[in-house]
Amino acid sequence: MISRLKGQHGSGIREANTYLGQKYVVADSSLIPELLQVLRDQEHFDYCVDITAVHYPDREKQFEVVWILYSFPRNERIRVKASYAEVESVPSAVPIWPTANWLEREVFDMFGIRFEGHPDLKRILLPDGWKGHPLRKDYGIIQQDQEWVQINLGIESGQ
């Protein structure tokens, strides 16, 4: 499979390896829409298990987005990773896997990463008026939206 992907995408597949029995591919962000489509259609990764991200504030491309895919016919998982700058949008995987809808909304809510082409990108876990994105490393561990708590709950924060 990796040979086929490298044959189709060349140096756009930056790394392909296995770590502790888990396969992963690191790809150039420009390849992501096509690569995800190929993994579904040709390699039979028919289920998008999860989409998540990691925040590296000191990198030029601060966010690494991770798609965790599963193939029922192959009984196999693969992780696809790509790096994005804070100002870049990530192409939505909802047209490929409808299950990506709420997964992308969670990544948007927790990291502030925008998914271009998402049908309804809005917060899913936190209230609409919440400020900040709690899974970013620049969001303080004790920080919370003091103003929102005061206005909406009428109490002082317990932090």
Q: What features would you describe in this structure?
A:
By secondary structure, the chain is of the alpha/beta class. Helices cover 24% and strands 28% of the residues. It has 4 helices and 7 strands; from the N terminus they run αββαββββαβα. It has helices spanning 2-9, 32-41, 100-111, 146-153; strands at 13-19, 22-27, 47-55, 63-71, 76-84, 90-91, 115-116. Strands 1-2-5-4-3 form a 5-stranded mixed β-sheet. Strand 3 (47-55) and strand 4 (63-71) form a beta hairpin. It starts with a helix and ends in a 6-residue tail after the last helix.
Radius of gyration: 18 Å
Order of helices and strands: HEEHEEEEHEH
Mean pLDDT: 92
User: Largest sheet, order of strands side by side?
Assistant: 1-2-5-4-3
Given helix and strand content, the structural type is alpha/beta
Low-confidence segments, given as residue ranges, are: none
Please describe the biggest sheet, giving its number of strands, its sense, and whether it closes into a barrel. Answer: 5 strands, mixed
How many helices? The count is: 4
Give the fraction of residues assigned to helices: 10-25%
Instruction: Note the beta-strand portion.
Output: 25-35%
Number-wise, the strands total 7
- In angstroms, what separates the terminal alpha carbons? 50 Å
Query: What is the general shape?
Result: elongated
